[in-house]
From TrEMBL:
Function of the molecule: Catalyzes the epimerization of the S- and R-forms of NAD(P)HX, a damaged form of NAD(P)H that is a result of enzymatic or heat-dependent hydration. This is a prerequisite for the S-specific NAD(P)H-hydrate dehydratase to allow the repair of both epimers of NAD(P)HX.
Complexes and interactors: Homotetramer.
Protein name (Swiss-Prot/TrEMBL): Bifunctional NAD(P)H-hydrate repair enzyme
InterPro entries, alphabetized: Carbohydrate_kinase_pred_CS (IPR017953), CARKD (IPR000631), Nnr (IPR030677), Ribokinase-like (IPR029056), YjeF_N_dom (IPR004443), YjeF_N_dom_sf (IPR036652)
Length: 494
């Protein structure tokens, strides 16, 4: 498992509870002190983000998350702000009851939440209803409150109420925060699936826990490091194109020549020395006219691939391949070649239909629908726990797996997972996956192993998408990524 860097390390909720217990039982940090530190961190974030706020609304649950909210409310009250606190219950549990009492002792007043109760009139609303311990959908008064939040900035304490902190999935009512302060350590679910819509700006507050509190608790996953580009060394001057590999892109059945062109051009833009394209003969003229640097060859079936396969060092298989006999023939030839390859799109669907072992060094790049077919389940099951789905695919297929989507995951057969924190909704458009296939293939061709090629490829692709989208993601097209990709891949080598 990865080593711990607080800014990159992701944990399950059970692991964070274990860290809490260690801090309290072995490191001498009292539970109420942890609660006070959390409130201090959250109130500092609130003041920093909304310095002009004068009216603070607080929603407090019965557990420790509510305790954090009571203590934050006390800080706001003592700072001279107007505080309107709505509590789910008449009493709290454990340290949270002490926190409730300190707010009352400071002069604060508590309203009891009831169905239809007026939400606090506020400049900022603090969500302290439920933290990581909630294992069910919100219901009753809590769901009613959450569903009526509108028109006011929201600060969530630890995790937006209603969001599964392990998976990033929501089931029913869920707070949509403008900012979330995660306490102790990053919860892995804050960076994928529905969390990208619910968390807003994410901030980590480790609460000054001693390093010993984390001892013996393995990191579950990591964020992709912004310095991942260091795995790709700078180029020497005395080289030639053969030094940087030969990518063979296979696909583009009738009517889908654009897909394989995007893959081939992405491989070129990311530094592959040579890129060939094996496609339908009807597409060759258009490819030569649009991108003459691609060595396009029309092939009738897999048997015609033999000389191309012999020269290639890496294969990019699947974009526009189709599911007909032509695509199946190329699929079989590619898999039996034993070459390192990236498997995408229709090649993944063929792999689900006709289970085959992929060669060593393979990278699979499914979206949730393709992942569901490979796993024999439905898309909802994949999205319900993307971490489990990615790990299972990597284990059963003995390959590196990129599970695409909001917060793309890269998983290895040994259980390692990294999460990509970049990307934007404009990238939900045709051809983006074809570009990613070419990016990863180019990195394999330049000497990266499958794990590094997938991690760096996903990072470059997402950051290029962000650079191309700017503040206008709607209307982004796959070809917009080529310019940023070239700049970023060169910056990655710096």
């Amino acid at each position: 498992m990865p080593t711990r860097d607080p800014s990159l390390s992701l944990y399950t909720t059970e692991q964070v509870r274990a860290i809490d217990r260690t801090a309290i039982d072995r490191c001498g940090v009292a539970g109420f002190e942890l609660m006070q530190r959390a409130a201090d961190a959250a109130f500092a974030s609130l003041r920093r983000r909304w310095p002009d706020a004068r009216r603070i609304g607080v929603l407090a649950g019965a557990g420790n998350n509510g305790g954090d909210a009571f203590l934050l409310a006390r800080l706001a009250w003592q700072a001279g702000l107007d505080v309107d606190l709505l509590a789910l219950t008449a009493a709290s549990r454990g340290d949270a009851e002490r926190a409730r009492a300190t707010f009352i002792e400071a002069g604060g007043r508590i309203r009891r939440a009831e169905a239809g109760a007026a939400l606090p009139a506020s400049d900022v609303l603090v969500d302290g209803l439920f933290g990581t311990g909630l294992g069910r959908p919100l219901d009753g008064v809590a769901a009613d409150l959450v569903e009526r939040i509108a028109g006011v900035p929201v600060l969530a304490l630890d995790v937006p109420s209603g969001l599964d902190a392990d998976t990033g999935a929501r089931d029913g009512a869920c707070v949509r925060a403008d900012a979330t302060v995660s306490f102790v350590a990053w919860k892995r679910g804050l960076f994928t699936a529905d969390a990208l819509d619910q968390c807003g700006a994410r901030e980590l507050a480790t609460l000054d826990l001693p390093a010993a509190a984390y001892d013996g608790i393995a990191v579950d996953a990591e964020l992709v490091d912004a310095q991942i580009g260091r795995v790709l060394p700078p180029r020497r001057a005395n080289v030639n194109k053969s030094r940087f590999g030969h990518v063979l892109a296979l696909g583009g059945d009738d009517g889908y020549g654009g897909a394989i062109r995007l893959t081939g051009e992405a491989a070129l833009r990311c530094g592959a020395g040579l890129v060939s394209v094996a496609t339908r003969a009807a597409h060759v003229g258009a490819l030569n006219a649009a991108r003459p640097e691609l060595m396009a060859r029309g092939v009738d079936d897999g048997a015609a691939l033999a000389p191309l396969l012999q020269r290639a060092t890496v294969l990019a298989l699947g974009p526009g391949l189709g599911l007909r006999d032509w695509g199946r023939s190329l699929f079989e030839a590619a898999l039996t070649s034993g070459k390192p390859l990236v498997v995408d799109a229709d090649a993944l669907n063929l792999l689900a239909d006709v289970p085959r072992r992929v060669p060593p060094g393979a990278v699979l790049t499914p979206h949730p629908g393709e992942a569901a077919r490979l796993l024999g389940c439905d898309v909802a099951s994949v999205q319900r726990d993307r971490f489990a789905a990615a790990r299972e695919l990597a284990r059963t297929r003995s390959a590196i797996v990129v599970l695409k989507g909001a917060g793309s995951l890269v998983a290895a057969p040994d259980g390692r997972v990294v999460v990509c924190p970049w990307g934007n909704p404009g990238m939900a458009s045709a051809g983006m996956g074809d570009v990613l296939t070419g990016v990863i293939a180019a990195l394999l061709a330049q000497g990266c192993d499958a794990w590094d090629a997938a991690r760096l490829g996903v990072a470059l692709h997402a950051r290029a998408g962000d650079a191309a989208a700017g503040d206008a993601p709607r209307g982004l097209v796959a070809g917009d990524l080529f310019g940023p990709l070239r700049r970023l891949v060169n910056g990655a080598c710096a």
